[in-house]
From TrEMBL:
<dbReference type="GO" id="GO:0005737">
    <property type="term" value="C:cytoplasm"/>
</dbReference>
<protein>
    <recommendedName>
        <fullName>Citrate synthase</fullName>
    </recommendedName>
</protein>
<feature type="active site">
    <location>
        <position position="331"/>
    </location>
</feature>
<keyword id="KW-0816">Tricarboxylic acid cycle</keyword>
<dbReference type="InterPro" id="IPR036969">
    <property type="entry name" value="Citrate_synthase_sf"/>
</dbReference>
<dbReference type="Pfam" id="PF00285">
    <property type="entry name" value="Citrate_synt"/>
</dbReference>
<keyword id="KW-0808">Transferase</keyword>
<dbReference type="InterPro" id="IPR016143">
    <property type="entry name" value="Citrate_synth-like_sm_a-sub"/>
</dbReference>
<dbReference type="InterPro" id="IPR002020">
    <property type="entry name" value="Citrate_synthase"/>
</dbReference>
<dbReference type="InterPro" id="IPR010953">
    <property type="entry name" value="Citrate_synthase_typ-I"/>
</dbReference>
<comment type="pathway">
    <text>Carbohydrate metabolism; tricarboxylic acid cycle; isocitrate from oxaloacetate: step 1/2.</text>
</comment>
<dbReference type="GO" id="GO:0006099">
    <property type="term" value="P:tricarboxylic acid cycle"/>
</dbReference>
<comment type="similarity">
    <text>Belongs to the citrate synthase family.</text>
</comment>
<dbReference type="GO" id="GO:0036440">
    <property type="term" value="F:citrate synthase activity"/>
</dbReference>
<dbReference type="InterPro" id="IPR016142">
    <property type="entry name" value="Citrate_synth-like_lrg_a-sub"/>
</dbReference>
<dbReference type="InterPro" id="IPR019810">
    <property type="entry name" value="Citrate_synthase_AS"/>
</dbReference>
<feature type="active site">
    <location>
        <position position="273"/>
    </location>
</feature>
Length: 396
């Protein structure tokens, strides 16, 4: 019994850590950051306020927000040397391969000035990472497009600055559409943290050795890339494209037959979750954001959105999914929104990493800040060979 929350002993026996940051109730489909329901944060807060909440434990007041925003803004540029890391990649390298390299490379600039056991150093590392991720993701995109990098502009909002660095060129400014800016900011909020998911557990385990936070976050980026995790939004949009090519809504039944065929290994991407056995609350908010953005952009007849809603309706009435408690997760609609606001599909997971960086670093700092923490050392159940003698080669 911890305050309002009661856990069964079975759950606690599998818990990897105590945390005060994010609470999920998988059966009820509830998600709270530091006690605030995600549905309220998505409407009444912005991403930088949510970053403040995740890092410091509460939403900022007006002055705190001003100071925090100024600190993040003043760290949005990256060392000019970072451009040379990009040059080593092929232009068509996957952005998550590039991001794994770039975030790890940040260590080269800051690791020797970062004492992970110093709370001030942990805080400045958090600010630097939150500030620089949009710049690095935009640089990865510009590099793939063969366009010059765009420097951040301090007068723009966090989401507006990202869109500027992505789509402005030296020849043409990018006019930030407020609907797109708000939608992107909400996408960041919805992806900011999610308790002990695979990539967050990776960051905690990696950081528990005392390595610098930039290297630990790079490990999280690498883990998030997988299609079973953060790569699902890209995979989901590709899946919708494939169904469209098969014939669209009329072919949903054929696709679902493939999913049900055990030998096909075809998954309904964007559906199912290790913890949610109910509707992922983020998916509901993402679908609302879809409606808002597509409506504002005159794309309400977007065929992929219509296909996604038909697919969701059919799956939610199909016993295969109902009996397995498979519901849409955060990745089911996020790709459609990002595609509508002009983000290339290959960048979806990099944007997930951009948003999740605050959750990773908040969880890492929570662990390191606990004087009782030790290096992680998962154990195993050994089911291999019993002891045996080595025979000389001639007798093998
Ligand atoms: C994220 O942990 C987090 O918090 C992650 C995340 C975060 O914010 O960090 O929420 C982000 O990673 C969301 C998940 C994104 N992944 C996808 O959308 C990929 C598609 N989903 C599946 O790969 C799957 O649902 C997982 C990996 C997410 C969960 O897999 P599990 O743990 O095996 O799911 P399960 O145990 O509930 O599966 C029960 C059954 C199994 O079939 P049976 O063996 O009982 O016959 O349902 C099947 C699974 O094979 N199943 C699916 C399915 N998901 C599970 N069948 C078809 N399509 C699916 N999507």
């Amino acid at each position: 019994q911890t305050g309002k929350f009661t856990y069964d002993p079975g759950f606690l026996s599998t818990a990897s850590c105590n945390s005060t940051i994010t609470y999920i109730d998988g059966d009820k489909g509830e998600l709270l950051y530091r006690g605030y329901p995600i549905e309220q944060l998505a409407v009444h807060a912005d991403f930088l306020e949510t970053c403040h909440l995740l890092l410091y434990g509460d939403l900022p007041d007006a002055q705190q927000k001003k100071d925090f925003t100024a600190r993040v803004t003043n760290h949005t540029m990256v060392n000019e040397q970072m451009q040379f890391f990009l040059r080593g990649f092929r232009r068509d390298a996957h952005p998550m391969a590039v991001m794994t390299g770039l975030v790890g490379a940040l260590s080269a600039f800051y690791h020797d000035s970062t004492d992970i056991n110093n709370p001030q150093h942990r805080e400045i590392a958090a600010i630097r990472l939150i500030a620089k991720m949009p710049t690095l993701v935009a640089m990865a995109y510009k590099y793939s497009a063969g366009q010059p990098y765009m420097y951040p502009k301090n007068k723009l909002s966090y989401a507006g600055n990202f869109m500027h660095m992505m789509f402005a060129t030296p020849c043409e400014d990018y006019e930030v559409n407020p609907v797109i800016e708000r939608a992107l900011d909400r996408i960041f909020i919805l992806h900011a943290d999610h308790e002990q998911n695979a990539s967050t557990s990776t960051v905690r385990l990696c950081g528990s050795s005392g390595t610098n936070p930039f290297a630990a976050i790079a490990a999280g980026v690498a883990c998030l890339w997988g299609p079973a995790h953060g790569g699902a939004n890209e995979a989901c949009l590709n899946m919708l494209g494939d169904i469209q090519k098969m014939g669209g809504v009329e072919k949903i039944g054929d696709f679902i037959k493939q999913v049900k065929d055990k030998n096909s290994n075809v998954k309904l991407m964007g559906f199912g979750h290790r913890v949610y056995k109910n509707y992922d609350p983020r998916a509901k908010l993402m679908r609302e954001t879809c409606h808002e953005v597509l409506g504002a952009l005159g794309l309400e007849n977007d065929p992929l959105f219509k296909l996604a809603m038909s697919l969701e309706k059919i799956a939610l009435e199909d016993d295969y999914f109902v009996s397995r408690k498979l519901y849409p997760n955060v990745d089911f609609y996020s790709g459609i929104v990002q595609r509508a606001i002009g983000i290339p599909v290959s960048l979806f997971t990099a944007i997930f990493a951009l948003a999740r960086t605050v959750g990773w670093i908040a969880q890492l700092n929570e662990m390191i800040g606990d004087p009782e923490y030790k290096i992680g050392r998962p154990r195993q159940l050994f089911v291999g060979s019993t002891p045996r003698e080595v025979k000389p080669l001639a007798q093998r």
